[in-house]
Amino acid sequence: MTRRMAIASAAALAATPGFAGKGDTIDWHALAEDVRSEMRWAWWEYRRLAWGKDQIKPISGGTESFPLKTAHLGLSLIEAMDTLWVMGLDAEFAEALDWVKAHADFAVDGEVSVFETSIRLVGGLLSAHHACGDPVLLAKARDLTDRLLPAFDTPTGMPYRFINLKTGARRDPATNPAEVGTYLPEYGTLSRLTGDPRYHDAAKRALVAMYARRSKIGLLADKIDATTGEWLSRRATIGPPSDSYYEYLWDGWQLFGDADCKAMYDSCTAAILRHQVVQAKGQLWFVDVDFDTGVQLSSEQDELASFYGGLLAQGGAGATGAAYTRAWASVQAQFGILPEGYDFATGKPTSVTNVLRPELADAAFNHWLLDRKPEWRMLGRAHYLAMKRWNKATHGYADMADVTSKAQADHCPGYWWSEQMKYYWLLFSDTPRFDYQRNYLSTEGNVLQGFRR
């Protein structure tokens, strides 16, 4: 984006009614109402054109399925439910609940990602249950998890990546930290609500099995065989496919008070801070390194890692976390919307797409929950206004095919409904439906603790 484009964009955003000014003069409630209005409009388009389908194509108005290839499970609808509820869009929540109770059926002969299905659909059903208490939601979450649980039956306890929801056939033991260890909040919540410890125990066993295989310098590589426990790579990264493993170590402590999770989080974080932090051009970044030697592998950054500053702040490393989030904020200021890949050594993108990514808004929200500094609200505001300016399409919000030209792509991921729209709303609204002191949001933005009925 040229300097002229950046100046024009800033002027246009500043001229938006109710949103202009510095942090202490902005009408945050007006901004929150704008977020809710956009959510309602996008929901109506989904309701009109893609009801019960997994994902709407926001440019053409078509649909696409995920995580199954040939059948729909109502992904976007389920992911949206707790966001609708916390926004007070009660009529929309009620019609979504009616659809789930009448039509959500997971006895489908098809293969799904255990990871994606757990954080999105199991988590979405549990957060909707947390919002309204309807027992059918809990029953459906349990049915779905029962179909996923055989994936964890391996010699190591680490799950296969894929499973058939009807037959239980499993596939692909070549997995990674995120797909091994991103289950405990959802499965632990399910165990707490049902009294059945199997879900919690399977998730915890997998989490610990991964931690037990860290290198002599305390780092984890990003590919492992779930059946043998042998490493299949040497790269240590805080980005994908390792990112949410570290998040869920902390979350096990935050949500359940699990001291094992706290100790594992502290150990992994100490190793990451010791071996992966670099300073470049006055900014702090985390680099990929060899997990056994600590030798730096590249200067390329993945946008999905931009959540990590907020996690560090939660874990007590507030200054380091803030510095990392500010480094990503500078990239957002440069391009308007973050590119998926960025090289801090060259200052250039290595991937110009952006699949409606929520990670920087997630970090801003977590920082703000801890210290209430206006800069984090302002960062969330910039993220929202840029999305509204460049991602809005005819029938919803669309990906960026190219952040440098602002060309859109005809795709809206299911997590858009669960993540950034919720982060924006909670950042701006001060809603009484949410406990800002005691709460928990999953890696998918699902609220499993903190709703006030």
Question: Can you characterise this structure?
Answer:
The chain has helices spanning 3-14, 28-49, 75-86, 90-103, 114-132, 135-148, 177-181, 184-194, 198-211, 243-256, 259-275, 308-314, 318-335, 359-371, 374-390, 415-418, 420-429; strands spanning 55-56, 63-64, 111-113, 162-164, 170-171, 174-175, 224-225, 235-236, 277-280, 283-286, 289-290, 300-302, 341-343, 348-351, 392-393, 396-397, 399-402, 407-409, 440-441, 447-449. The radius of gyration is 21 Å and the shape is globular. Mean pLDDT is 95; it is low at 1-21. It has 453 residues and is mainly alpha-helical. It contains 17 helices and 20 strands. The protein has a three-stranded antiparallel beta sheet with strand order 3-4-5. It has a three-stranded antiparallel beta sheet with strand order 12-13-14, with no helix packed on it. Strands 1-2 form a two-stranded antiparallel ribbon.
The largest sheet, given as strand count, sense and whether it forms a barrel, is: 3 strands, antiparallel
* Percent in helix: 40-55%
Task: Based on Cα principal axes, name the global outline.
Answer: globular
Count of distinct strands: 20
Structural class given helices, strands, pairing?
mainly alpha
* Strand composition percent: 5-15%
Taking pLDDT < 50 over at least 5 consecutive residues as the criterion, the unreliable ranges are 1-21
Ends apart, CA distance between termini: 45 Å
User: Strands of the largest sheet, in order across it?
Assistant: 3-4-5
Question: What count of helical segments does DSSP give?
Answer: 17
Report the mean per-residue pLDDT as an integer.
Answer: 95
Rounded to an integer in angstroms, the radius of gyration calculated over CA atoms is: 21 Å
